[in-house]
Amino acid sequence: MLKIKLLFVALLSFMAAGFAQTVVTGTLLGFDGKPMIKEKVILKSPQFPSVDKDIKSVTPDKNGKFKIQVDSAGISMLYFVGVDHEPYQMALYVDKPEKINVNVRLKAYNYLNDFSKAALLGNFNEWLDAKAILMTKNSDGTYSAEIDSKSDTVIYRLKNVADGDLVEGTQSDAFVYDLYYGYNSLIFSKPGKVKITFDPNKLLRSDAKRKVSFSDPHSFAARFAHVYNEILENRAAAQKALKDFMSAGKDIRAFKYDWSKAVKSYETQIKAEKNKIIKDEMLIGYLELATARADLDSNVAKQALADLTPDSFLWSIDPEAIDVILKITHANLPMISEYLDKVANENSSVSVKTYTLYDLFMIAKYSGKNDEASKYYNILVNKYGDTEIGKMIKERFTDVQHVKVGSPMPEFSFVSLDDSSKVITNQSLKGKNYMIDFWATWCGPCVGQMKTLNDAYEKYKGKNFEMISVSFDRSAEDVMKFRQGEWKMPWFNSYVSANDQQKIMKDFDIIGIPNPILVNDKGIVVALQGDLRDESLDKTLNNLLDTGNK
After folding, report:
1. CA–CA gap between residue 493 and residue 477 (Å, rounded)
2. For residue 421, how many other CB atoms are within 10 A of its CB?
3. Is the pLDDT of residue 51 over 60?
4. Structural contact between residues 132 and 121, judged by C-beta atoms closer than 8 angstroms
């Protein structure tokens, strides 16, 4: 306990000092060991769900050498970015002044061989996937597309050209740094039609792996960065496996990634680790595996709950791990709320605070505790309105709940995908029981509910019951194509364009999808969310329609 108190005092003294005491130096190079066209080292604070702003950045010299100072204690992130290369993210835990030397050699993008889906995103289409402009293949093997530009500069990236990445284009007059992507391609032009060409022959391909080397590979900084890198690699592996699984058209409910090797490795390392901070970091990585359905030892989770106090800096690595630990240790709702409240009040990380406040808002909202929900909503909007979660909750919600059990369904009007002359509204459904399900073809859990929805429709379609699916897809064509496959969805289908999605989400309190809402023949909401998924759906519909007595 004395050591912990002394560490806390040291941290307070360091933060109060107000000047840089930790310095990171080194080199940043490309896959070929040479400086890149444009490159930068950026210091960021860890944020969830994404980074809101840079703290500071430096441009390496002509030989790739850099020097950057860290001005505060706690966890920071160093991002190494360069044109035509995958960025690298390194975690720093600073609790005392030190000098760190690290040399980074980035790897080239993992480019695809098939560019038939190459598309453009940029300042001309608001960087929206739904508005991506597909490129056309030319006779010389290049790809091109024409865009409407309203300014004298076109800023863009290529989509569906590299595995999992948006990348710079091969046609660029310059490169401009971007907070989220690294470097974007820039073309000087006049307002009007601008032709952009992508030439696959100009891509820099290489199998060389990324290299990160510390002058002292056994230092605390090197070890902390290595453990964090393992967390990132596990995330990437799970995401790729899920993407491949879904691309094969398989039912997401059957998805199961083999985490046995990673679980065993973490459990062995956690047991042997002597450094408390490194051990706690490993515990965060271990807990994160559960977000991809890993089976974890509840005893290790209990150890994490005891070791990772509500004020721990390490929660900022992944605030979602808080939800995991509470679930695995079988905490009940009051216990969960109590722990989250402690985190929100005691943790100094804005990222962790906003995530837990959002959790508390959602718990209160779905528990029907409107006064509590309003309290957390106002804190997020008024105190943290400039954060990503603060902005999101302001866009999607008000402090008034629109959709809740026992209240009338908000008014709506949806046009049929199969026949644009048909429109469904509250009035047209008067006297009928119906379920509206907001979904998308790209949403794994949504697709995973298709069998449940189909079975329910076939069982209850003749019992004064209607089903409506409203898609948030990038295009109506995506839905039509999906329905040509295994699931025909022979009920009423509609589509909400990208321009209208935010309004619909706010009107119906939609945070994520799938988002089913069940309404009775009097127009009153009778069930939401979990009561309308998997085996619960049949039970809920049976109770509403009272089929057993008819």
Report:
1. 12
2. 6
3. no
4. yes
Whether the CB-CB separation of 429 and 410 falls below 8 Å is answered with no
Q: CB 308: neighbour CB atoms within 10 A?
A: 21
Residue 185 gets the label, from left (phi > 0), alpha (psi -120 to 50) or beta, of beta
pLDDT band (50, 70, 90) for residue 478: confident
If one counts every other C-beta atom within 10 angstroms of the C-beta of residue 467, the result is 21
pLDDT digits (tens, 9 = 90+) for 387-424: 888 888 887 776 667 788 888 999 999 999 988 889 99
Q: pTM of the prediction?
A: 0.74
Nearest residue to 247 via CA among 130, 164, 143? 164
For 336-390, list the strands marked E by DSSP: none
Instruction: Taking the CA atoms of 519, 520, 523 and 524 in sequence, report the sign of the dihedral they define.
Output: negative
Say if residues 349 and 313 touch (Cβ distance below 8 Å). yes
How many whole angstroms separate alpha carbon 511 and alpha carbon 397? 9
User: CB atoms < 10 A from the CB of 34, how many?
Assistant: 10
Per-residue model confidence as pLDDT tens digits over 193-214 = 999 999 999 999 999 999 999 9
Q: Residue 367 in contact with residue 334, Cβ under 8 Å?
A: no
For 67-80, what is each residue's pLDDT tens digit? 999 988 888 899 99
At residue 57, φ and ψ (nearest 5 deg) are -150, 155
User: pLDDT at position 183, please?
Assistant: 94
- Work out the burial of residue 7: count CB atoms within 10 Å of its CB; fewer than 13 is exposed, 13-18 middle, 19 or more buried: middle
Q: Beginning with the edge strand found earlier in the chain, give each strand of the sheet holding 74-82 in spatial order.
A: 54-58, 39-44, 74-82, 88-94
b/e map 112-122, b = 16+ CB within 10 Å: eeebeebbbbb
Average pLDDT score over the chain: 87
> What single-letter DSSP state applies at residue 180?
T
Which residues, 6+ apart, have CB-to-CB distance to 248 below 8 Å? Answer: none
Nearest to 37 by CA among 174, 237, 205, 242: 174
- Measuring CA to CA, which residue among 37, 75, 9, 125 is closest to residue 227? 75
Q: Pairing between strand 423-425 and 174-178? A: unpaired
φ and ψ at residue 78, rounded to 5 degrees: -105, 125
Rounded Cα distance, 392 and 511, in Å: 9
Residue closest to 39 by CA, chosen among 177, 168, 171, 179: 177
Where does the pLDDT of residue 475 fall: very low under 50, low under 70, confident under 90, or very high at 90 and above? confident
Cα distance between residue 301 and residue 235, in whole Å: 19
The Cα 451–Cα 251 span in angstroms is 9
Whole-angstrom distance, CA of residue 281 vs CA of residue 435: 44
